[in-house]
Amino acid sequence: MGGPAVIVVGAGPVGQTAALLLARWGLRVLVLDRRPARDLEGSRSICQQRDVLDLWASLGVPQVAEEGLTWTTARTYYRDRELFSWSFGAQGPLPPFVNISQARTEELLDAAIAAEPLIEVRWDREVTGLEQDGEGVTVRCGDGLTRAPYVLVCAGARAHGVRQALGVTFDGHSFDDQFLICDIRADLPGWEQERRFYFDPAWNPGRQVLIHPCPGSTYRIDWQVPPGYLATSDDISRKIRQIIGNRPYELVWQSVYRFHSRIASRMRVGRVLLAGDAAHLVAPFGARGLNSGVPDAENAAWKLAAVLRGWAPEELLETYHDERHAAARENLEVTTATMRFLVPADEAGRAHQRDVLERGAIEEIDSGRFAEPYWYVDSPLTTPGRPFAGRPPRGQSPAPAPGVILPDCPIPGGRLREMCRGGFLLLLGEMCDSGLFAQILGKVTTAPLAIRELAEIDGTGALAETLGAAPDEAWLVRPDAHIAAMIPRAGTEEVAAAVSRALRLAYSES
After folding, report:
1. Which long-range contacts (CB under 8 A, 24 or more apart) does 53-59 make?
2. Residues 53 and 166 in one domain
3. Do strands 218-225 and 170-186 pair parallel, antiparallel, or not at all (unpaired)?
4. Same domain, yes or no, for 467 and 502?
5. How confident is the model over 131-163, as pLDDT tens digits?
6. Contacts of 472 (CB under 8 A, 6+ apart)
7. DSSP strand E in 102-244: where?
8. Interval 260-269 mean pLDDT
9. Can you state the angle between helices 434-444 and 492-503, rounded to 10 degrees?
10. What burial class does residue 115 get, using C-beta atoms within 10 Å of its C-beta: 0-12 exposed, 13-18 middle, 19+ buried?
11. 166 Cβ contact list (under 8 Å, min separation 6)
12. Are the C-beta atoms of 217 and 185 separated by less than 8 Å?
């Protein structure tokens, strides 16, 4: 059977997703995890964004979206006064997000991995060393050496030894305040579809409390607590009672966390790539942790597959660092700004927070901007074209443009995004000759590339209208569903050049 093409270090959701993606590309994968076995407890990362749900559905795990809970209303309070509330607008083919415990997500992904013969998982294998050469990487564990052409490190925040072995720094900031997190099971009528955020409530003065509904009458409660806080059963019971009163409840899980804002200096070092919390840590407000780690895995997987299959040169892997490091920097900026408002560092910051909350200045209150896909507008793989309109209002998707993820429009028999995961996709307006493009592009690349006419997908014209696609326009979509090019008055040379650019292939007009 031969050895693995890729070793994935870490069997959390990011590593699980990476393994499933690599196997879908036909690559043999070995997953190593330092833990003795799966620890299926605790909500941990609970909020999974629509585009992550879409990816998992494409991997045969639609149950995350199906079992998760989507709350409809977000309420924000200052002390005992509601400042504002907002609700999500029109729903797409998938919910905008779901709340579901990380333990359940891991369980569902494990089932998919168990059904995949190309994936082997070995527990109780802590990686203690990495050595790479021009042909591959040797991974040292307690039970000996393992080797593969490439390694993808998804080992979480505790991947200190691996980062150190690669010469990668992990600069940033750790916040002094801690957060007590409890999962409780209780009957709370009226709370089942609401997320509640409290600034300075009487029962946690000067700090915040966040309450999320989850499936099965379970609620996740986060209290900001002072440095050095020690959780006792009496204090936890008191805190819960202050919120829910005398209703019966069951304490399912508890933990105390410190939040961090850190980013690796490099996400690619030779044949080793870093992903997820091994590469970046952000505060959880806005759910930008796991929801950025999974796109790391997808970005890495299609590029590793392209290189290993001979569809692209190894230089393509450097764009993994270019794209995902930029995404990590943006997430760091967004979440750091949130934490500056939530946890002011000095009296001036606290005074500003009080002033904003007293005035109820909604536009100035920052309790986290919800996770969204990063837009590869400036990526070396993106062919410039229709201008990017910039960050849209909260809860809305950006208009299609090169670098933006393809809208997930409903089409007859399914969703448009379902067509994107098997390779590159070329969408053509009605004035484009698909036969001619197929003939030319077959000479440019051997990578999987499907050519579809918009009129063939939806003969009513509604899809082209929804996308805003012109009749003479060609859209090139990457395997991660990001638009690589939107070419007006599309000719074969322009499209061939865009395909070559998206794979880092040398190209000259014939």
Report:
1. 53/94, 53/95, 53/97, 53/98, 54/94, 54/408, 54/415, 54/417, 54/481, 55/17, 55/294, 55/298, 55/421, 56/17, 56/109, 57/94, 58/417, 58/418, 58/421, 59/17, 59/20, 59/21, 59/24, 59/112
2. yes
3. antiparallel
4. yes
5. 999 999 999 997 789 999 999 999 998 899 999
6. 429, 431, 432, 488, 489, 490
7. 119-122, 127-132, 137-141, 144-148, 150-153, 170-186, 194-199, 208-214, 218-225
8. 96
9. 40
10. exposed
11. 130, 266, 269, 272, 274
12. yes
What does pTM read for this prediction?
Answer: 0.95
Measured from the Cβ of residue 20, the count of other Cβ atoms closer than 10 Å reads 25
Model pLDDT for residues 22-53, shown as the tens digit of each residue: 999 999 999 999 999 998 888 999 999 999 99
One-letter identity of residue 259: F
Measured between alpha carbons, how far is 403 from 461 in angstroms, rounded to an integer? 24
Provide the CATH number for the domain around residue 213.
3.30.9.10
Examine the fold and report which residue of 259, 290, 316 is the final residue of a domain before the chain moves on. 259
- Lowest mean per-residue pLDDT among 280-294, 369-383, 388-402: 388-402
Q: Which of 289, 287, 210, 298 is nearest to 20 (CA)?
A: 298
Which residue type does 256 have?
Answer: V
At 7, list the tokens. 């070793």
DSSP-derived 3-state class of residue 322? helix
CA 282 to chain centroid: 12
Q: How far apart are CA 428 and CA 421, in angstroms?
A: 18
**One domain, residues 290 and 151:** yes
> What residues contact residue 481 under an 8 Å CB cut-off, 6+ apart?
51, 54, 405, 406, 417, 420, 421
Is residue 263 scored above 90 in pLDDT? yes
- Structural domain boundaries, residue 209: 173-259
Give Rg (Cα) of the chain: 24
Compute the C-alpha angle 475/476/479, nearest 5°: 135
The answer to whether the CB of 125 falls within 8 A of the CB of 142 is yes
